[in-house]
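Message: I would love a firmer grasp of how sequence relates to backbone shape in proteins. Thank you; the sequence and its tokens follow:
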Amino acid sequence: MEASKILQSDLLDIVFENRNKQYGAYELRKNYSRRTISAVTITLCTVASIIAITSFSQKNNNTFELTDKEEVHVMSIMEEEPKVIPPVVPPPVHTNPPPAKTIDYVIPVIVPDINAALPWQPRTK
């Protein structure tokens, strides 16, 4: 593209300069703002119509008249006897079990294989 046309051309024209503009990407990007405005307008109109329909339908449902009048008889309520709460029993005291028997750490003694009788030898007291 010529240097004088670069300053006057659109960024989209510069990006798609030597490319195929017929397959649709150029058209989608060129008319993006128009599509966005129409989508937002359609969405707002749909939401407004739903709100209007629900508000008009609720106005008619809220009007009602009381035609049946019944007498109400007040009855005395018998009080219940207070429930006896049993005293709180403290939980049983747990005693710790005696500690488990352990064996002292056996220090390994390195000896030649000929002198080794067992793979390990317990410590005797």
In short: The mean pLDDT is 80. The first helix runs from residue 3 to 8. The two ends are 100 Å apart (CA to CA).
